[in-house]
Every structure is written in structure tokens, then in C-alpha cells.
Amino acid sequence: MTSRFFVLGLLVGICSVTLASDPSPLKDFCVADSTSSDSVVHVNGKVCKDSNLVEAEDFFFSGLHIEGNTSTPSGNIGTKAIIPGLNTLGISMARGDFTPSGFSSHVHPRASEMVLVLKGRLEVGFVTSNLENRLITKFLQVGDVFVFPQGLVHFQRNARDTTLSAFSSQNSELSRVSIACFESNPAIPVDLLAKAFQVYEKTASQIGGI
């Protein structure tokens, strides 16, 4: 009998772990309060604005129709929709603009991304995780949609286009692989970079501009 209770308890414990997930919001909304001294805290959401003071403007953003300045090293710029009402809802949106030779290669550690091509033609792709490391890539036309799974290295390259991206997190973050590896502060030792990328130390130094 004791062994049966032990097995039952073990199964309950396993199920409780398996069914665990992020909690659903306990309110209809939690508009970020920009006036609060605690509003800079950003751990799964910011301080909520008094619901009696919430208005339509808290759920509105105008500006994704404006082309961004693509005078960047990568020829790409992103414009994020800043909407206080998205706080704790687990979604976000951004516009991406590319020059004819523009590209972007990065990782979103906390979100999957869905991209919609609004103008031009876009080459996209992502690399699956170990041990496959398989490249999945496709050329997109206007109106096409593509999904990048959360946490996977992915890229977008273009012949002049505009995209609209949606993310499964209000704070997806963006980590560019090259900058994270070769421009960290303090710098990653050159010998480690050489081993990680399987190149000579001189080559690693030249890549990082050391």
C-alpha cells in the first residue's frame, strides 16, 4: 500500500511539472504606467496604470507607415510599435526597412517571430539547433508570411523591401551573433573565438577588428 501511495505521489509530481506554464493575466489589461517611479522595472511586465485612468491612446500607435533610416552598417533598421497597453500581453510588433543590400542576422531569445513582406522581395532563413544545424531558407514576395522559431539564429536579406514583424513576447530582445561574439565587453579571448569558429587566431582577430 505504501509503495502505491509513493508511485501515485510521484506521478502527481511529474504531472504538475509537465503542466506548468506561465500564468495567464489576472486582469483584462495592465497598461504600463510611465509616471510610476517603479515603471523602469521590467520583469514580465511593468507597473500597471490605474484602470480608471486608462484611455484609447494607451492601446494605439501611429508610425509604422513611416520608412526608417537605413543608414546603418547592415543597411537595416527596425521601428517598434510602442504601445503601453501591450504590457503583460506577451506580444509586440515592429516594422523593418532594408536597403538594396541590407541584411539582418540575429536571435530572439524570448520570442518566435512572424514576418510579413509589405514591399519588395526578401530572402529569409533559420538554422535548426544541434545536432542537425540545418538551414531552412526561402524567398518571399509581397504578401508572403514566414515564421522564425524562438531562440534560433535567423536572417533576412533583401533587394529593397519593407516588412512587418510580430513577436510572441512584449520584450523579445535581439542579439546579433557577430556583435555578441566579437564586440562583447569585456572581449572574449581571441583563442576561444578561434576555437569556437574553428579558424586561426589571426583570422578571429581580423573579424573582430582587434
UniProtKB/TrEMBL annotation:
Superkingdom per UniProt: Eukaryota
Compartment annotation: Secreted, Extracellular space, Apoplast
KW Disulfide bond (keyword) present: yes
Keyword annotations of the record: Apoplast, Disulfide bond, Manganese, Metal-binding, Secreted, Signal
Gene Ontology terms, MF aspect: manganese ion binding
Pfam annotation, one family: Cupin_1
Record-annotated Cupin type-1 domain positions: 62-205
Amino acids binding Mn(2+): H106, H108, E113, H154
Intrachain S-S bonds: C30-C48
Keyword Metal-binding part of the UniProt annotation: yes
Residues at which oxalate binds: H108, E113
GO cellular component terms given for this protein: apoplast
Chief localization: secreted
Residues spanning the signal sequence: 1-20
Entry-linked SMART domains: Cupin_1
Protein family (similarity comment): Belongs to the germin family.
PANTHER family: GERMIN-LIKE PROTEIN SUBFAMILY 3 MEMBER 3
Protein name stated in the entry: Germin-like protein
UniProt organism field: Anisodus tanguticus
